[in-house]
Design a protein that fits this description.
Elements: H1 3-16, H2 22-42, H3 54-66, H4 71-92, H5 117-125, H6 132-148, H7 152-156, E1 170-173, E2 179-182, H8 186-199, H9 219-233, H10 241-254, H11 259-266, H12 271-274, H13 282-292
Antiparallel strand pairs: 1-2
Helix pairs in contact: 1-2, 2-3, 2-4, 5-6, 6-8, 6-10
Length: 297
Amino acid sequence: MAAFPARNAFLDWLSGERRASPETVEAYGRDVSDLLAFLTVHQGGEPDLAALRLADLRAFLAHRASEGIGNASRARQLSAIKTFLRFLVRRHGLEPLPLGGLTGPRRKPPVPRALTESQARTATTDSFEDSPALAARNQALFTLLYGCGLRISEALALDMRDAPRAGQGLRVMGKGRKERVVPVLPAVEAAMAEWLRHRGAAGPNDPLFTGAKGGRLAATVAQRALQDLRRATGLPEHATPHALRHSFATHLLGGGADLRAIQELLGHASLSTTQRYTAVDQAGLLETWRRAHPRAD
């Protein structure tokens, strides 16, 4: 089957049988057209899809990289092209290629977006709540996330017996049932004490953070509370519970903390995950280097 009619048949199938959105059909059509235009030059004439090899597809990806196309865009193009070729195998008898052996460019994980120290202070001390109890609960939770670097799920899983106290390590159950111990700042203990004063009497196995009906606080409620706070105080859109954890790590790193110590505090299984934070505060790292390196002057 000729290359360009094959492209048109593929797009008809996408929109008709697969009921893909017009935007998806347009994007896939553009991706396949880019491949066919490359093959026209690469093969020296109208593309012969029956003669297509994995080396041709690798050459196409390399060509796109040389044009400055990013990893995410090239990975998306490869996905569209694989769908196109599998369509031709099923519907038009194209000899299958071992596409499983063709991996696209790795997408870089997003760089964590931290708050400034001033924004983190606002998130942990301000309140929009009319209820003093809810205000105290939210401040205690957000102070815990920022002060100890907890995931929202880890904080909400705590029971009354786990209530953090300064000078004592807080035991946290992280991903993969991996336990870690994190230090507790006096500010965390103070915020927690204010919440517990409002919370009232409870048993050691009762949830530390509760919702309106007395059950364990849901993550969606906590996320909505911070969303309302950022709208009321002008905090940026990336001010989320997880951003408080990012801010914990970023501010420690900027202050000169050891990367492996931060890895332990965050409960990361791999140091490479923690190393993402080195891309966040380059100015702070440079200042730390100037203070610490004997030849920095």
